[in-house]
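Appendix B. One record, verbatim.
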Amino acid sequence: MTEFIDWYRTFPYENLGSVAQAMFKSALTHLYFETLHPFEDGNGRIGRFLSEKTMIETLGFPILISLSKCIEKNKNQHYEELKSTQNGGDVSKWLQFFFKIFIESIKENKEIVHFVIKKVNYFDTFKSQLNDRELKVIGKMTENGLRIFEGGMTSKKYISIAKTSKATATRDLQHLFEIAAFTKMGEGRSVNYQINWELF
């Protein structure tokens, strides 16, 4: 661990650009820490935290990334790449994997920021026109970001979420469509509604 900390403090890739340096140092910090595996428990969590800490520390400013989340999502491949490199494999394969995770993390966070801005604008536009039932249903529909609400919002789903009658659900859905908060798909019994993100 003493050698690891000394290496961390004197990271040798001074000639790289700041972003490249941060990515290399973050990738190798994670690899070396997980290889050392100094604790009985919590090495994975600490290793993921160190990746993000290294990135931010090397760049010198905070960045919106969630390497930990993306590593966890690709957990099986993560373990395979770690094990392969630790067993004498080419470190370049580990770097390729880590950089792929890094890029995936940036894309995910970009989507989150994009969604938050759209959601704020959406509620700024419609909130004063919505009742508590409508707010609850829209909250449920926006749990997965900008993704289409699977199957659309139907009167049956509305009744279940808002705990209301069929007549009230039908009236609320028509109101949401009339104020352009929802878009309508299909007709008759197959009608369903989606959040109208197109306005923003």
